[in-house]
Write a structure and sequence with these properties.
Layout: H1 5-21, E1 26-28, H2 30-43, H3 46-56, H4 63-75, E2 80-89, H5 96-99, E3 107-110, H6 114-128, E4 144-157, E5 163-167, E6 179-186, E7 192-196, E8 201-207, E9 213-220, H7 226-237, E10 243-245, E11 252-255, E12 258-265, E13 272-278, E14 280-287, H8 292-295, E15 321-330, E16 334-346, E17 355-363, E18 368-374, E19 380-386, H9 398-401
Parallel strand pairs: 2-3, 13-17
Antiparallel strand pairs: 1-19, 2-4, 4-16, 5-6, 6-13, 7-8, 7-10, 8-9, 9-18, 11-12, 12-17, 14-15, 15-16, 18-19
Amino acid sequence: MRITNQTIRAVNDLTARWAAVAPGGTVFSAAGVWPLLGLLADGAGGAVRAELVEALGVPDGQAGAAARELLGAMGAMRGVDRALGLWTRRTLELRKTWEAGLPAGAHGVLTADPVADKAALDAWAAERTGGLIKRMPVALYEDTEMVLASALALRTHWLRPFTESVTEPEAGPWYGRTLLGLRRRTEVLDRIGVADTRWGHVTELKVLGDNAVDVHLLLGEERMTAGQVLAAGVDVLARRCPVLPGPALPYGEAGPGLRVVRERSSRPVPPSLDVETVAFGVTAEHDLLAWPEVFGLGTAMQEHPSGHFPGISADPLFVGSARQSAMARFFARGFEAAAVTAFGMPGGAMSRLRWTTTVVEAVYDRPFGFLALHRHSRLVLAAGWVTDPEPYPEDPQYDEEYP
């Protein structure tokens, strides 16, 4: 199933808005939230509908169809697993037209036992993410009438793996630390580029996966915030700013963390790209109701006697909780990320050197951002900011922990 450019742009723009308010050292997935907001908008009325439609960035009346389109398209992507789940009390009667728009088998039941229900929801989250997320990020109470959730997991192996090494930054926030470094050399210079964005220059490194799931590493100028760097990465995907590609970079300091130099060589070799970065693992818990304006939930979270979602049920419903659990891991051979989002609704020998060659050196040795995306559609599936990379292991069982 194909995703429209309008939907891709809307999801990626939500990524940029979320990045502006999210804390540092985080990971999140707008692609995990967006379809849930779309389904809620499809059944909402009044001010709640208007706020959700504005947050979604699609015309009124198209939110439900766009959400179903996005879920179907992500399910068809190699390396991406997605699922939608709905659980309701037996006494909650859903509108047939709204329920018909859900995937087959998505509807489960909430019992009168919150402990048993939570165990069932946790098992669903773990199963749908292959164990990457073990718990459903929602609290269940006696008055919880409905839970709407999504699960998203992605895995890829690099087309060209990195080599692990010891990295000890010589300056910056990671100075004095011994980190698990990742290095590789390639002759494909267009994997790197410098974007001239509205906030400043950003170096973008594309790390390609073997199933069209790629990760873009984003290093901005030191004065730039995490939100600005990630938003700049979204602008690059949308082709809203110019990018100077690796083959056209000038000699000298070419961009943040980027230097182009001449090196002596014992034989004639083509130009190359040397990359040095760090392994990282990031986990985060997000309370979406802390930023209601970002997700269009300002009115939806307010209790109202007649409810806000007449298209879902005649019974009064409001959004009592909206949370996401997310993780990402960037390592020598690949990348994996997952997010579970849930809405609870109550009533990462020297030889002779005769020739010269050009080497583009990229060093990610201070906090940087990342976007994990589907290569062909340019849909951002997960995003984050790295502040605490993996330390270099001293444990002899390290090889068993990082297969």
